[in-house]
Structures are given as structure tokens and as C-alpha cells.
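Notes from hallway chat w/ T.B., transcribed later so I don't forget. T.B. wanted the structure written out for a chain they're using in a teaching module, and asked if we could keep both sequence and C-alpha cells in one place. Agreed to drop them here.
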Amino acid sequence: MTKEERAEKWFRHIPGSENISMEKKMEVCKRVALKIMIVFLVIFLLEFVSLLMIGDGAFLNWLSNLLNKINAGTRTYIVTALVGILSVSPFTILPFMVIVPLKNQWIKAEVNKLMNENR
């Protein structure tokens, strides 16, 4: 997806966005994407830190042992990679649940800022 396509998609249901130039939309998307990335990483890291604190990292040790056992029995790393991805994917649910509503709020706030600057 190009920057223009992302800007069109993100601003599709935002009222008043049709009056904003494509350059401004792409600038807003860049700022909002940076916020999204920071929030996602912070929540993701907090989940792993809490896993380390609760049970002294026993779950993460169990998970690494499981991946090592799978890796020892296969010739390719595809199975190991798939199991690793599937085992970590539940930790992305909470960050996505937080980010999806925030994205639209941040875009609306940026549109309001731009509208107020143009007045």
C-alpha cells in the first residue's frame, strides 16, 4: 500500500477530510502511524515484562523449550517459525484492541487541528 492509498483509506470516513490536501493527509498519517507504533510496542513490551514477573518467566521458558524441541526434530525451520508466530500472536490482541479506536480518534483530532489552522 502506498502512502497515498493509506491516506485515502484512513481518511475515508472522517468528516471534513475532503477539504484537506493529499500532502497534509500523508503528513497526518505519518504522525498517527508513529503514535500507533509507539503505543503498540509499549503495550507489547508490558505484556512480556508482566509474563517475566509473574511466575519468574516460567511460561517463556516453557515456550522456548517447546520451540527448541520442534526445531531439533525438523529439517526445515518453517514449522518452528509457524509455531513461534502462533505462540506469540495472542500477545498482539490487546495492543490491537487499544490501537484501533485510538487511530480514528487521533486522525479526527489532527483533522480538527488542520481545520482550525485554516480558519
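Follow-up for T.B.: The radius of gyration is 20 Å. Might be a good example for the class.
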